[in-house]
Amino acid sequence: MPRAVFPNRILPYALLAPQVAITLVFFYWPASQALYQSTLRQDPFGLKTRFVGLENFEAVLSDPSYLNAIETTLIFSLATAALAMALALLFASAAEKVIAGKGLYRTLMIWPYAVAPAVAGLLWLFMFNPTMGTFAYILRRSGIPWDPLLDGNQAMLLVIFAAAWKQISYNFLFFVAAMQSIPRSLIEAAAIDGARSTKRFWTIVFPLIAPTTFFLLVVNTVYAFFDTFGIIDAVTAGGPAKATETLVYKVYNDGFVNLDLGGSAAQSVILMAIVIALTAIQFRYVERKVHYG
Where does the chain cross the membrane (predicted)? Predict the structure, then answer.
């Protein structure tokens, strides 16, 4: 394999400098500031600051509302990732079977990803608003007392569906690309041997797209933890009665609304540690079942 040779020793570092600068400025510097601020206690106006060490972490971890936010986040994240990936895989499989209008079908499936999270949340809020939503009216006529503004379980279902709908297009793109890379000869040989479409999918297609599935599992986990803030803020604002207050929304609520800057910084550090731990667990145990051909 030919090796790249740089005649100038400074050139490789010059090419890497922009990316290194962006990483330092937009990741390591904010992370270090959050870690530093988590050890401080200050008034809302920043006039008085006192070093308190790990007291903010102790207060956060002993707060029942924070423990409730952890439980809410786990339920929300697992449900959102599972629903978004399952539906995307189903639609990608259906797209491979479409003969006429396949390009149009794929384009329509991709469009929702261009919608901003807050706009996606408002769309679902309008559709399921208990006073003027079309689908809310259909549910009430069907005998279902629908009111996510008062019922915490219904509010959780609404934000899960809204967040999953926003992410389906992203997953759909990767699943379609992965399926297109599978040699058609393998599927045709299985069909000749008498294997039905369901058998071919679980024995040939799904194992071969395992690397893509694992990648999307990590991406969807991070998405559910961080990128769903706009949807939750637009749909429920963490309510009712904190039923949909996830960890990332609690960081915002305590820091920007209640002005507990030290506690909010401590929560952001804990949230970052949780996501890093979950990602490490996924790579440590889930990746064992992934075969990279």
Answer: 12-31, 74-95, 107-127, 155-180, 201-226, 265-286
Residues constituting the chain: 293
Asked if 108 and 195 count as a contact pair (C-beta separation under 8 A), the reply is no
Name the CATH superfamily housing domain 62-290.
Answer: MetI-like (1.10.3720.10)
Determine contact, residues 218/133, Cβ cutoff 8 Å. Answer: no
H/E element holding 128?
Answer: none
* Rounded Cα distance, 140 and 123, in Å: 19
- Which H or E run includes 175? helix 152-180
> 284-293: long-range contacts (C-beta < 8 A, 24 or more apart)?
286/214, 286/217, 287/214, 289/210, 290/210, 290/211, 290/213, 290/214, 291/207, 291/210, 291/211, 292/211, 293/208
Q: Where are the domains of the chain?
A: 62-290
pLDDT tens, 250-292?
Answer: 999 988 888 888 899 999 999 888 888 888 887 777 766 666 5
Dig out the tokens for 53 from the structure.
């060490």
